[in-house]
Each structure stands twice: as structure tokens, then as C-alpha cells.
Amino acid sequence: MHSISENMLRFLLRYMEKNVQVIWTECQQILRDNLTQSVYMTWFAPILALSFENNILVLQVKSQFIVEYIEENYLTLLSKVLFRMFGPQTRLEYRVQIDSHTNAGVNIPSDVSQTHAVPAMLQQQPDLKDEPDFNSQLNTDYTFESFVQGDANKLARTVALSVAAAPGRGSFNPMFIYGGSGVGKTHLANAIGNEVKRLLPQKRVLYVTANTFQLQYQDAAAHNQIPDFLLFYQTIDVLIVDDIQYIAGAGKRATQDTFFHIFNYLQQSGKQIILTSDRSPKDMRDLEERLLSRFKWGLAAEMSKPDYELRKNILLNKMHRDGVSMSMEIVEFIANNVRDNVRDLEGVLAALLAYSTIGDCEIDMKLATEVVGRIVELKPRERNLADITDAVCEEFHISPEALNSQSRQRDVVIARQVAMYLAKQYTNMSLSDIGRSIGNRTHATVMHALDVLNGTLAENIVLGQRVHHIENQLAG
Fold first, then answer.
1. pLDDT tens for residues 196-253?
2. Cβ–Cβ under 8 Å, residues 431 and 443
3. Cβ(353)–Cβ(371) below 8 Å
4. What is the biggest distance separating any 2 CA atoms in the chain, rounded to whole angstroms?
5. How far is CA 172 from CA 44, 131, 143, 256, 272, in A?
6. pTM for the complete prediction?
7. Which residue among 19, 125, 143, 257 is the one 20 to 30 A from 335 at the CA level?
8. What angle do CA 396, 399, 401 make, to 5 degrees?
9. Hey, what domains does the chain have and what are their CATH numbers?
């Protein structure tokens, strides 16, 4: 065999010095073939080759943490690749930039040596298992289609749609969703994740509660697996952490510190972070200030308690999806009495469906009253005559002046009778007081009006429904 001449050797070295980035790109391809996609993209894809002089290869990396992790976990493979592509005498140094303006940095020598290589120099690839299917832990029922928009959540939903369309690329990073229990924060956060997976299936999306994150961290610490824990979270493209307030507390400083580093890495890498909480960032306590300040970087979107119209629309939406049938009167009764959160509304509907199915009966007002009464305390609201006349005028589309006038138009007369009827039902006013307050009528006129209306209600179903509708409005 002919040995390589000194001149040829010098030529090869000069070639490698001039084309270091080209050769490093080939090294990266070999690394890509021997690693899972997520590992390669996290640790090796961002690395740049700066120079190759006097057998010293200098690679630029973003942080010392990356150096330490590669040295601890991938040194043998890296040594094999470098010795094959740059030669067996290659030494490696990492350049960690510490000031982007002055280009100042520090060089860290690697432990790359012949002891990590094998004579065959990558004659065969290491046996590596394929990366398992990634479980995003998302609730697939929580989508934008099943999320009902109203005044209480319009801003949050609008921003959420924007984030889902371009995760990590807008100014809403992190997106911080806050509000009381049961207003739909978890639903909206999952909807973002599900939409990202639909639009960008290659993205790694993860939903996790803060409590689960805490338990995972404790388990990793107990088994000396913190590097693996960090690596896993740094491969996530869209991280959703529910109830982030639960990592607050003096006894959770280590968890907060770890989450801080994960947050920084993802945010700086253009990955999307979505957080939910029962309070706004400014109201959070026992949380590291540097972490709290980062929660305020993006957008804090509040979700309020649903108003009457939103509660009603949520019920109608869920009835449609679940195939539940009941009258609008019952829907309005539930919406008027179950006010605090969406979760209770859905619980009432599920209970009604269960009772109706088991008992093989229709959902009527009696059953609805029993079920709602088990979830919320049904307190009759104190009503005054002004509330009643306002509700009646709104239902019959007449003015208060017409109600109190001497008009004998049919709609006005019926509205006046209904107002007297409801005043008798829901106030402690005497018939004389009711008459004087509604057009200065007499006691006898009010009695006659009540007798007529009672007879009409027994025969006129449509009028009965209108009266029930007014009663439900008054209950709200």
C-alpha cells in the first residue's frame, strides 16, 4: 500500500480547513441517521462549525448546558463521526457565545478521544429504537367547534385561534389564560393544542397539569434523571400547562427553577407556551419573581363567569351534540339558576339525560327543578313590581306608558292582566296596591283581570309559554 505523501496530507488538511462547514454538514447527516428526530433537532441541528485548524475542530453552541449534555450522553457517537470525517487526530472544542454584540465567547475543550472511537469507525450504525408515538395528553373533545363564544370569553378565544394558527410566531407567547373555576380555561387550552395538531401534525404538543409536572420532576430527581426530564420538555413545540398556580409555594423552589429553564429554552427557541391559572399573574403569590415576570411577557386573557345568554347557548350547543331534547322553558330555567360555571351546566345536563334514560321519561320542569336543586341552592329571588312590569313590557313589546294607560287594545289588555297576575304571585302587595300601581285600577278590576287570565291560561298554551318565559327571566 502506498502511504499518503506529506504534500497530499497538507492538501487534505487545507481542504478540510476551508470546507469545515461542508464536512460538518455531512457529520450532521450521519448523526441524524443515528438519532431520533427530536434528539437530533434539539442538540445537533443548531450547531455551527467555525474552524478546523491544527486538528482542532471548533463548534459553536448556544450554551454550556448543551455542551455538558452532549458530552454526557452522546460523546461516543460524536467521537466516531468526527474521527471518520475529520481524521483520527481530531480534537474538539465548543465555542459558547456570551455576548452577541461583541461576539465574545469562551472555548470549552471536549473529552473526545480515541477511547470513544472504534477501529471500524462507524462500519455499522448503533442500534437505536425508533421514537415511540408521542402522546399529547389532549382531550380530543375539547375543540374550538365545541367551545361556545360569548362576551365572557371572546378575547381569549380570538387570541387562542391566532396562537393555534401560528404557534410561537406571534406576540402572544406565553398565552396566559386566567379565570375562576369552571369557566372553560382547560377547554380552550386543549382546543389550541388540538387545532395545532390538525393544522401542523408534525408539531409535538403536550398538555400537562402543574401537579403532574411537579410529580414528574420529583420522580426524575429521585432517580437522577433530571437531564432526561429537561431533554424531553425541550423537544416540545407547544407546551400547555394547566393550573400553573400549583407550582407556587416556598416548598417548590426547585420545581420553579426547573420550569424557569424550560420556559426560557422554549420561548427563545420560538416554541409556544400556554398557561392557565385561576388568577392573573399580578395576583400570584409565592412564585419566583423572574418566573412571574416571564408570565407577563405575552398576553393575559381573562375568562369571566358566563352571562345568561352564554349559559343558554352552551346548553343548546351541548344538547345538540349529545342528542338531548327538552323545552326552551327548561333551558332558560337552568341558565337562570346555574350561574357560576360551565362545568355545573354540563353536569346538570348529564344528570338530566341519565335520569331521563334510566326512568324512561321525558325531561320536564319537575325533573329539572329536582336536578338543579341538587347542584345549586334554588332561592326565590325577591321581585318588585318594577321588575315585573319591565319584563312584561319587554315580552309583549309595549311601553310602560301603554301598560298603565286606558288602552283596550288586545295585546295591551293581556299584558296588563299578566302583570297583575305576576304581581299577585311574586309580591306581597295587596290587590288594591297592585291596581293603583298599574294604571290606577280598582281592587275589583284586578280580581276580574286575574279570573280572566286564569281561564285564558288554561286554554291558551302559547300564552302560558310566554308567562313561563317571563317567570324564568325574573328568576335570573
1. 999 999 899 999 999 999 999 998 888 888 888 888 898 899 999 999 998 887 778 8
2. yes
3. no
4. 128
5. 28, 31, 20, 22, 9
6. 0.55
7. 143
8. 135
9. 6-116 (3.30.300.180), 154-303 (3.40.50.300), 308-375 (1.10.8.60), 385-475 (1.10.1750.10)
